[in-house]
Amino acid sequence: MAQGVVYMFTNKLNGKMYIGQTIHEDLRIKHHLYAASHPNTKNEGQPFVQALRKYGIDSFDYTRLFVTDDIDDKNELRRILEEKEQYYIKEYDSVNKGYNMTEGGGGMKGFMLPPSAIDRIRKANTGRKLREEHRIANIKRFAEIRKDPEYIRMMSERMSGEGNPMYGVRLFGDRNHNFGKSLSEDTKRKISETKKGKPGHKHTNDTKKLLSGLFKGVPKSDETKKKISASLKGKESPMRRKPVVQYTKDGVFVKEWESIKEAELTLGIIHVSESANGKRNYAGGYIWRYKSECDKDIPPLVRPLNVRRIAQVDEKGTIIKEFNSIREASKELNLKYSGISNVLNGSQNKTGNNYRFIYIDH
Q1: Interior CA angle at 304 toward 317 and 217, to 5°?
Q2: Which of 20, 59, 151, 225 lies 20 to 30 Å from 251 when distance is taken between CA atoms?
Q3: What residue stretches are annotated with the GIY-YIG domain (predicted)?
């Protein structure tokens, strides 16, 4: 069976305290005194040892703060002592107002190296490089630590809320260190040189789809649309710089855009290029054509598009159903586009399925 104690040394001259715990009380006190009277021991840098050396043991009062019962299980005894040590260190604030270097409990929480020790470590490591095997071993060791659930929980708690160094920090506007600054041509050139020959980041197809749909259907205010339009005027899009014309589904002119990019960003839509290339009927509910493919001699407001309404009729010419285009009829009736087109232009009277069609918009 063993008994433990949490003790406190108090400096009579300045009121500073040192709190510790042990199961060998007399031996622990002797260790403190030995370290104070013998320089260059492993406890040399401890503030309490330095204080004992400076003021002498007679300048300190010794107090028992807590004494355990006799306990058989040493692990349980240690647990109780560490818990009580942490309690009293916090109670007396002996890290900030005393000689304790940590918050107790056998750990290093709250530990801060003295400036002299930091300086010695800095000098010893200046110019020193780890061997490759040590560097790789350290990387692997840290990678394993980061997978530890306890480490993840600890870091999550430490970095949450006010524990996060960026908590409440706003770096927008004039609070940003680059606010109002413009890069010099020399700086731009240097940045450009560092990027040359380096491949850019490549997204997977799934990521590309995700990114392309982020702002699909998101409405933009008139002010935002004006800003986007103004920012793109006079600039060429490296990939989609061809001017396009926007029409309603009925072929009525809406607007001419300097580029596909400008139209898509301003309206918050996609697939404009596919509509302009004829791969898709509409984009964002509109028909799109490249400006270079439109008849420039016809005023935009009356410019017709090659989209004509048709109707399916019976042998007597009675309309059975109307369609907005040949393509629409082809899809709905499961007929070949060419078959319907041949009937409409007079090459044949009816399709192979005995369907007849006529134009109804002229």
Answers
A1: 100
A2: 225
A3: 2-101
Main-chain dihedrals φ then ψ at residue 306, nearest 5 degrees? -80, 55
Q: How remote is the C-alpha of 282 from its chain's centroid?
A: 35
Q: Where in the chain is the domain with CATH 3.40.1440.10?
A: 5-118
Q: Which residues contact 115 (CB under 8 A, 6 or more apart)?
A: none
CA dihedral 211, 214, 216, 217 (to 10 degrees): 180
Locate tokens 């290029």: which residue? 273
CA 11 – CA 23 distance, rounded (Å):
23
Residue with more model confidence, 300 or 28: 28
- SS3 state at 71: strand
Tell me the C-alpha distance between 295 and 272, whole Å.
20
Angstrom distance (rounded) from CA 352 to CA 129: 82
pLDDT at 114: 62
Per the CB < 8 A criterion, the answer to whether 116 and 46 are in contact is no
Across the beta sheet with 60-67, the strand order is 17-22, 5-11, 60-67
Q: How many CA atoms lie within 13 Å of 85's alpha carbon, on the beta-carbon side?
A: 25
Q: Residue 239: is its pLDDT beyond 50?
A: no
Residue 304 has pLDDT above 70, yes or no: no
Q: Which of 54-63, 284-293, 346-355 has the highest mean pLDDT?
A: 54-63
CB proximity list for 291: less than 8 A, separation 6 or greater: 242, 243, 244, 245, 256
Tell me how far apart the alpha carbons of residues 94 and 17 are, in angstroms, rounded to a whole number: 6
**Stretch 261-272: mean pLDDT:** 89
**Buried b / exposed e along 252-276 (16+ C-beta atoms within 10 A):** ebeeebbbbbbbbbbbbbbbbbebb
Write the CATH number of the domain with boundaries 213-302. 1.10.10.10
Share of the chain above pLDDT 90, in %: 16
Structure tokens at 79: 């647990």
Q: CB under 8 Å, gap of 24 or more: what pairs does 225-228 form? A: 225/266, 225/267, 228/262, 228/265, 228/266
Q: What is the pLDDT of residue 112?
A: 59
Question: In which residue ranges of the chain is CATH 1.10.10.10 found?
Answer: 213-302
